[in-house]
Amino acid sequence: MRRREVKVLAAAVTAAWLAGCGMLVPRLPAEQSGIPATWPLPPVTGAGIELPPAGAAAGEPAAAAAVADIGWRDFFVDPKLEELIGLALAGNRDFRVVVLNVERARAQYRIQRADRVPTVTATGALARSGGEGLPVRDEASVTAGVAGFELDLFGRVRNLSEAQLQRYFAQDAARRAAQLSLVAEIASAYLTLGADRELHRVARDALVNRQEALDLTRKRHELGAVSALDVSQAQTAVETARTDAARFAGDVARDINALTLLVGAPIDPALLPERFDLHVSGLVELPAGLPSEVLLRRPDVQQAERLLRAANANIGAARAAFFPSISLTGGAGYSSDELSGIFNDGTRVWSFSPQVNLPIFTGGRNLASLRSAKVDRDIALAQYEQAIQSGFREVADALALTRTLAEQKAAQEALVAAATQADQLSRVRYESGRDSYLVLLDSQRTLYGAQQSLIATRLSEQANRVLLYRVLGGGWKEATR
């Protein structure tokens, strides 16, 4: 046979082999999550992200950017919070474990990938034998060769390597998701601490005001202007405010402990918020035509997709187990009866032993492995679809709360303003003797409750903005490119 014909035949065999390898891996199934193409955006969301465009001068209008591309240092505008997030990413032990899991997955992929190339080893041996009445005999050898290298004719080794590669990518996506969650947890804990300190301040102010009212009531009681019941009611209001102040002080201490655990090290008190700040994050309205495809940028969705690809590659490896496999073992070297003459002429040796493994009867093991791989692929597909559906619900819930919380905050602010005016008028009327202390006490309770509700509403609004930033896939980049 001519050399050209041999080359053509080899090319045809190679093409047929590659086509066969590709047919063993099924086509990746399309997800059927059934989510709408767009978000159920309320008329005014007030929860988008606005950043200046690249190269824009100061004072120019900002342009909307993709949430997943917004770095957390650009999203959060509080320098104390930014520093705390940086410390947490460096010192949080749970996040450190996730990062190390990525390194382990990378090493496991390299181990699996090594099966695709032959392993060449060199061996040197010296054996001395003899016995009673027998001469002492030396045998030395030096060989280098390949042991048990599988010719990947049907892509089994390649598919196993591909599956491990996808698992490595999935672990890296899990790292990004963990970073995203950690950033959101730090921001939420920071906001909670600020809100609890604000509640503690309101409780202390209420305690001071009620203590002044108690002192005034006692003086009026001594003059016979009010009864002992008014004194008891004033004393009750003071002790209630004192109890709340102590409770909020305990909440502040717990919030600091939670932040310390998240950061992974003691925190400088100068980095902690003194009061609740309404300007922690940069958010404006979302664009009206924002598609739901942005969910595919979420790290947890990408992790589920990578696991689906890994499970699909395992099907190709399971199908390849039904076909013959060829393993090569061979070597070349030197062998001699004397160590000093091991590299002399006539001491060269070689061996070549290909081995063909043809599965004839395996007790149904290969078929069961294939069925298991298919079931694993279907499970991964369902989990991928579930990740998309869960992400869509999280974003839809955050968007739904955006408008309601804004309206609730406006109503609470109006309530606080009205309750403050009512409390001032009640105090004047009580001091002039026109109203009883019960009317003043009722106005104090209304104002105190309205102030607490306003702080809680502001906290919910800020926390919802951070949540929306997280569920849209933002937070795993440090800075915007």
Account of the 3D structure:
There is one protein chain. With 481 residues, the chain is an alpha+beta fold. It has one domain (8-117, 152-323, 359-471): Outer membrane efflux proteins (OEP), CATH 1.20.1600. Helices cover 60% and strands 11% of the residues. It contains 9 helices and 7 strands, in the order H-E-E-H-H-H-E-E-H-H-H-E-E-E-H-H. It has helices at residues 3-24, 72-75, 79-91, 93-113, 156-222, 228-263, 299-320, 365-431, 437-471, and strands at residues 50-51, 63-64, 120-131, 134-151, 325-336, 348-352, 355-357. The strands form 2 sheets. Strands 3, 4, 5, 6 and 7 form a 5-stranded antiparallel sheet that branches. A two-stranded antiparallel sheet has the order 1-2. The protein starts with a helix and ends in a 10-residue tail after the last helix.
Could you list some keywords that capture this structure?
single chain, 481 residues, alpha+beta, Outer membrane efflux proteins (OEP), five-stranded antiparallel beta sheet, two-stranded antiparallel sheet, 9 helices, 7 strands, 60% helix, 11% strand, elongated
